[in-house]
Specification:
The structure is a single chain. The protein is mainly alpha-helical. The chain has one domain. It has a two-stranded antiparallel sheet with strand order 1-2. A hairpin with a 3-residue loop joins strand 3 and strand 4. Helix 6 runs antiparallel to helix 12, helix 7 runs antiparallel to helix 8 and helix 7 runs parallel beside helix 9. It starts with a helix and ends with a helix. The protein binds zinc ion. Zinc ion (ZN) binds next to helix 6 and helix 12. It comes from Coptis chinensis. This is Heptahelical transmembrane protein 2. One of its GO terms (cellular component) is membrane. Keywords: Membrane, Metal-binding, Transmembrane, Transmembrane helix, Zinc. Its main location: membrane.
C-alpha cells in the first residue's frame, strides 16, 4: 500500500511538472501565433524529449522556432551554427572545384590555378602514362599542353574516357553536405521537421558513400565490365538497404548512434574488396598506389571523425564548455569534409591515369 501511495505521489508530482511544461509550450505557441516570438535559446533540460540528443551540450538550443527564424539563424550564434557552416563551407569548396573543373575543360587559360592549389594533376601525368603507349609522343609537349590533352578526353583520337563518374561523386558529396546543413539548421522547427531532416541527413550520408564508390570502380574496372557492374550494384544495394533501414523513425534517436555509425563505416570499408582487387589487377601502376594512398588517408579521416561522433569527445569531459564551438559533431563534420576532399584527390588521380591508358 505504502508503495502504491508513494507511486501515486510521484505520479502527481510528475503530472504537475508535465502540466507546467505543457503550459509553457502553450504560452510559447500563443506568442508565436501573435507574432511575438522571442528568439530564446533553451537549456538541455527544457527541451522536449525528441530534441534531447546530447546531454553534454547544456545550453544554446533553438527549440520549435518558426521556420523563418530557424532559417535566418544561420547568421546567429547557437549550438548548431558551426555544424551548419562546417558542411556549408565543404559544399562551397566542392562547388568551386566543380566550376573550376568545368572551366578547365572548356579553356586552357585556367590551367595555371585550377586544381593546382589543392593537388597538382599535371605533375602526376608522366606517372600515369604507360611506358610504351602511343601517347608517349603526345607527352613530349609543354606542361600546359599535357593538361589540355587530358581534359579534352581525346587521347590520340582513340577512345574517350568519360568524366561523368567523377561528377557523380561531386554531386553526391554536395548533396550530402547541403542536406546536412539544412538538417542542422531546420530540424529545430518542430517534431515533424526533426524526424524528417535527420532521416534526410542519414539518406544524404548513404548517398555520398555510394556516389564515392562510382569513379574509382568505374575507372579501375573500366576494362572489366562484369566486375564493374558487380561492385557498383553491390554498393548501390547496400546504400538502398541503409536508407530503408534508417527510415525507421526509432533509428534516428540518440540510442542508435553506434548503430548508425557502424552502418556507415561498414558501407565505407566494404570498399576494401574492390580496392584490393584493383591493386592486384593493376599491380605496378604507380597512380593506382598514389590513389590508394589518398584513400587510406580518407579512411583515417572518416574513422577519426566517426570516433568523435560516437564518443562525444571533448564535451563529455567538460559538459557545457563546448556548446557553441569545439564539440564532437563539429569536429566530425570537419573530418567528413577532409575525407571527401581526399577522396576527390584519389578520384582525379585514377581518372587521369585511365585517360592516359584508355585502351583495354
Ligand atoms: Zn551533422
Amino acid at each position: 500500500m505504502e508503495e502504491v501511495r508513494m507511486g501515486g505521489g510521484a505520479n502527481n508530482i510528475f503530472r504537475r511538472k508535465s502540466k507546467k511544461v505543457k503550459n509553457s509550450w502553450k504560452k510559447e505557441e500563443m506568442k508565436k501565433k501573435e507574432g511575438l516570438f522571442v528568439k530564446r535559446l533553451l537549456k538541455y533540460e527544457a527541451l522536449p524529449d525528441y530534441m534531447k540528443d546530447n546531454e553534454f551540450i547544456l545550453d544554446h538550443y533553438r527549440c520549435e522556432w518558426p521556420l523563418k527564424h530557424a532559417f535566418l539563424s544561420v547568421f546567429s550564434l547557437h549550438n548548431e551554427t558551426l555544424n551548419v557552416w562546417t558542411h556549408l563551407g565543404g559544399f562551397m569548396v566542392f562547388f568551386i572545384l566543380t566550376v573550376l573543373s568545368f572551366m578547365e575543360t572548356t579553356t586552357s587559360e585556367f590551367q595555371g590555378f585550377s586544381f593546382g592549389f589543392f593537388f597538382s594533376r599535371s605533375h602526376l601525368a608522366p606517372l600515369m602514362m604507360p611506358n610504351n603507349s602511343a601517347l608517349s609522343q603526345d607527352l613530349k609537349v609543354t606542361h600546359g599542353q599535357q593538361v589540355l590533352i587530358f581534359d579534352t578526353k581525346r587521347v590520340s583520337g582513340k577512345e574517350e574516357i568519360p568524366r561523368w563518374p567523377c561528377f557523380v561523386f561531386v554531386v553526391g558529396a554536395m548533396g550530402c553536405l547541403v542536406c546536412s546543413s539544412l538538417s542542422h539548421l531546420l530540424a529545430c522547427h518542430s517534431r515533424r521537421f526533426n524526424l524528417f531532416f535527420w532521416r534526410l541527413d542519414y539518406a544524404g550520408i548513404s548517398l555520398m558513400i555510394v556516389s564515392s564508390f562510382v569513379p574509382p570502380i568505374y575507372y579501375a574496372f573500366y576494362c572489366h565490365p562484369n566486375f564493374r557492374s558487380l561492385y557498383l550494384t553491390s554498393i548501390t544495394v547496400l546504400g538502398i538497404f541503409a536508407i530503408i533501414t534508417l527510415l525507421a523513425p526509432g533509428l534516428s534517436t540518440a540510442r542508435f548512434r553506434y548503430f548508425r555509425a557502424s552502418l556507415f563505416l561498414a558501407m565505407g570499408f566494404s570498399g576494401v574488396i574492390p580496392a584490393t582487387h584493383a591493386v592486384v589487377l593493376h599491380w605496378g601502376h604507380k597512380p593506382i598506389f598514389i590513389s590508394l594512398a589518398y584513400e587510406l588517408v580518407m579512411a583515417v579521416f572518416y574513422a577519426t571523425g566517426v570516433g568523435f561522433y560516437v564518443s562525444r569527445i571533448p564535451e563529455r569531459w567538460k559538459p557545457g564548455a563546448f556548446d557553441i564551438a569545439g564539440h564532437s559533431h563539429q569536429i566530425f563534420h570537419v573530418f567528413v569534409v577532409a575525407g571527401a576532399l581526399t577522396h576527390y584527390a584519389a578520384t582525379l588521380v585514377i581518372m587521369d591515369w585511365r585517360m592516359g591508358s584508355p585502351m583495354c
